[in-house]
Design a protein that fits this description.
Blueprint (H helix, E strand, L loop, with lengths): L29 H10 L14 E2 L11 H6 L11 H14 L3 E5 L2 H12 L5 E4 L4 H9 L3 E4 L20 H11 L4 E7 L12 H13 L4 E4 L3 H11 L8 H9 L4 E5 L9 E5 L2 H8 L1 H5 L10 H13 L3 H4 L1 H16 L11 E5 H4 L9 H13 L1 E2 L1 E3 L19 E5 L7 H16 L7 E5 L5 H4 L1 E4 L3 H13 L4
Parallel strand pairs: 1-10, 3-4, 3-5, 5-6, 6-7
Antiparallel strand pairs: 2-8, 7-8, 9-12, 11-12, 13-14
The chain binds ligand F0G.
């Protein structure tokens, strides 16, 4: 989807695919949405998908598959051991990343489990540009801690820095000095940094960071789950990459790392994951963990059909016409909302449009979860399911106090090839209404709070009757059926 010029009409992102299979959606009336939100304990993970109009919780495992992917699912080679499907997948990954050894795992966090189990010892440090929830949880579960060394500018919600996921090289050198290279399990760079708004990392930064790590003998790991968005931004924002193909950029990035892992729920447009390991000894040192946690070495807990779809999906992630759709839709949505005055994370990143909740509902203190409250309000007012990416997604400090997130975001993910621009326009419209009624939104408090990954399974309640009042105001403006 390159930017296609229009004659008279205002240019909009133009899809280079057409819809051949559809799924009917329904939009519950606002009163019912209020009831469903209460039943879900003010946790959007607990909503039933049938009660949702626009599911923008995530782009994970919910991207639309292509006709070629579906066709590939009809030719799997089912076998417990030695499946030809696995070898096809391994060959494709080698062709793209230039790494021949592949350990399959059922999804991204399963790869993280294997990496942390193998490399993280109690007291160890893992360096990251920024953490991802599951990546960090596996490190801490093994007794390690995470140091996040993203540039300060990366945490500024509004910016025009093109690569806000870049790591700060001075912070990196200081951290290696402080922790000691021997105490660092590995350095993990996340392409398309999820929790700070899908912000990309430059090819230059990948090179500079891994060069320093290698000088100190530190193992380098790339989380390529969001690589396809990152590649789009390398190509469109980084001078060096302008004349490179997506495959060439991919290879240049992969060349920096000892290990590449990914969630194929994102990269590959299917459901699965894998760890690619350059060094033979390292590969063998992790091998036994795959049958222990996942499944045999040639399926790793994945459906063989998904592996076939994924193999086609990897090729599709190397096509500019495919990978540009989400970032362009996201930018369209972000521009619409910024024009209206809504505080958004800028520049628009990959993965989704991100609302800066700290600013949107600045009257809600962080201990009452501003992003969590805003995401619930958006479901009540639009049947739109987003995801809280703020303090609720953090874990408490060992002494039980809250660890306040550096940014409070509501993520409206843009699954690939799923939504039309009119649906995205509807979302922007409901966010605008909510922005004009933001004073009505109140806080949340836990009624059931699990110790780890509480955002997945916790239950909350409103701190007052604000949800009822908000629903009433919405009904007054839009009528009972909307
Ligand atoms: N790394 C990154 C950068 C991710 O975004 C995710 C998942 C994972 C690892 C874990 O992969 O889900 O297959 O186990 N992100 C999803 C999301 C959950 O909604 O952003 P997984």
């Amino acid at each position: 989807m390159p930017e296609i010029k229009f004659y008279k009409n205002t240019p909009v992102p133009l899809e280079l695919h057409r819809v051949e299979i559809v799924k009917q959606l329904s939009l519950l009336p606002v009163k019912e949405r209020l009831t469903k939100m209460k039943e879900a304990g003010f946790n959007t993970f607990k909503l039933h998908n049938g009660d949702i109009f626009m599911d923008m919780l995530t782009d994970s495992g919910v991207n639309a598959m292509s006709n070629k992917q579906l066709a590939a699912m009809m030719q799997p080679d089912d076998a417990y051991a030695g499946s030809e499907t696995f070898f096809r997948m391994q060959d494709k990954l080698n062709e793209i990343f230039g790494i021949s050894r592949c350990l399959p795992a059922h999804q991204g966090r399963a790869c993280e489990n294997i990496l942390a189990t193998r490399f993280v010892k109690p007291g160890n440090c893992v360096i990251m540009n920024y953490h991802f929830t599951t990546a960090k949880a596996h490190v801490t579960r093994n007794g390690g801690h995470v140091e996040e060394l993203v540039k300060d500018e990366g945490l500024k919600t509004e910016s025009d820095l093109p690569f806000k996921g870049d790591m700060d090289l001075d912070k990196l050198k200081a951290c290696i000095k402080k922790e000691g290279a021997d105490n660092i399990s590995f350095l993990r760079m996340e392409a398309g940094t999820n929790l700070i708004g899908g912000q990309p990392v430059s090819l230059k930064n990948f090179r500079d960071v891994t060069k320093i790590a290698k000088e100190h003998g530190i193992l380098t790991v790339l989380d390529a789950s969001l690589l396809q968005d990152n590649l789009f931004f390398n190509k469109t924002r980084e001078a060096e990459c302008k004349n490179m193909t997506i495959r060439e950029i991919t290879r240049a990035i992969a060349d920096c790392f000892d290990i590449v892992y990914f969630s194929a729920r994102k990269f590959g447009l299917a459901r699965g994951g894998a760890i690619l390991v350059r060094d033979e000894d390292l590969f063998h040192s992790m091998e036994d963990l795959v049958p222990m946690f996942e499944g045999f070495l040639t399926y790793g807990g994945m459906s063989i059909r998904e592996m076939e779809a994924m193999t086609v999906g990897f090729d599709e992630c190397m096509e500019m016409d495919v990978i540009s759709q989400a970032p362009q839709f996201i930018k369209w949505c972000v521009d619409e909302l910024v024009d209206y005055g809504v505080p958004m994370v800028t520049p628009a990143g990959g993965l989704g449009a991100h609302i800066n909740a700290m600013e949107f509902v600045k009257h809600i203190p962080q201990e009452e979860y501003p992003a969590g409250a805003l995401v619930c309000a958006l479901y009540i007012c639009g049947g739109i399911r987003g995801m809280e990416r703020g303090t609720l997604s953090e874990e408490r400090e060992p002494d039980g106090s809250e660890r306040f997130a550096s940014v409070e975001l509501v993520r409206l993910a843009m699954p690939r090839r799923v939504f039309t621009l009119s649906q995205v326009s509807y979302v922007a419209d409901r966010v605008k209404w909510l922005f004009d009624h933001r004073e009505m939104i109140g806080g949340l408090r836990f009624t059931h709070e699990p110790a780890t990954l509480r955002f997945f399974t916790g239950r909350l309640e409103a701190t007052s009757d604000w949800p009822e009042k908000l629903a009433k105001a919405f009904e007054k403006d839009f009528g009972k059926d909307c």
